[in-house]
Amino acid sequence: MKEINRPTFEEFKKEALKKKGVREEYESLRPVFELKKQMIKARLESNLTQEDVASMLHTKKSNISRLESPNARHMPNLFNLMEYAREVGFNLEINLKR
Fold it and tell me: Among 38, 61, 78, 85, which is disulfide-ready with 92 (CB 3.0 to 4.6 Å)?
């Protein structure tokens, strides 16, 4: 059987980002991915599980999972982000940059 030589994710990403359209889309989604990473980090730093946060927000774990997922189809509204931040012991800050 012939061995398949697949690139690593980092190699694939590096090649893909050389393409203008891919790079532009990647950059346009960067704020979403950064926010989701920060949310997960804040929850973990507070030693909370998704189940814990769901209980605090009177919702289901699946809703918290979707809220934290960078692949979710819908963006959370500002109120939900503020509630999430408060329950995990953080403040939500929003900045506009040029």
Answer: 85
